[in-house]
Amino acid sequence: MREHSQTELQRKLIQKGFKAQAVAHALQDLIAQNLLSDERFTEAFVMSRRERGTGPVKIQAELQQRGIDNELIGRYLDFRDPDWLDLAQQAREKKFGRELPAEYQLKSQQARFLANRGFSHEQIRRVLDAEFETG
What is the structure's pLDDT at 130? Predict the structure, then answer.
């Protein structure tokens, strides 16, 4: 069993045929009993995705799709956290090896890979920059 966001659970229950009013009432009961928490969901989701090597851009988009507001996302997802650079570097090295690409085509390929994993343009630029590796 995993945490769900309020919007995610609402969508699932309505798709299963439950009436919207009954779902809303049930969700409010779950929230009142602290069995459903968007904050707890957000914290667990960010940690889980981070452990998988997913970058902050993709995590943010996935949280928004699940109905989490930007203020709550901002509490658990800091794009400036230097750990994102380390995570991006590890993902790049695991896929392509330690040596930085010298050719434009290889650099573009690695940048696309990191973008698809959800890293920001700034994080990608810094990871592919030779100064990051030495500094």
Answer: 58
The pLDDT of residue 135 is 42
One DSSP character per residue, 68-108 reads --HHHHHHH--TT-THHHHHHHHHHHHHH-SSPP-SHHHHH
Tokens 């890293």 found at: 119
Mean pLDDT across the stretch 84-107? 94
pLDDT (0 to 100) of residue 2:
82
Please check whether residues 63 and 32 belong to one and the same domain.
yes
Stated length of the chain: 135
Between the alpha carbon of residue 42 and those of residues 6, 80, 107, the distances in Å are 11, 18, 33
Nearest in space to 3 (alpha carbons), one of 32, 46, 38, 49: 38
Q: Give a yes or no: residue 20 inside a domain.
A: yes
Instruction: Compute the distance between CA of residue 72 and CA of residue 80 in angstroms, rounded to an integer.
Output: 16
The total number of structural domains that make up the chain: 2
Task: Fill in the amino acid letter for 74.
Answer: G
**Structure confidence at residue 131 as a pLDDT band (50, 70, 90):** very low
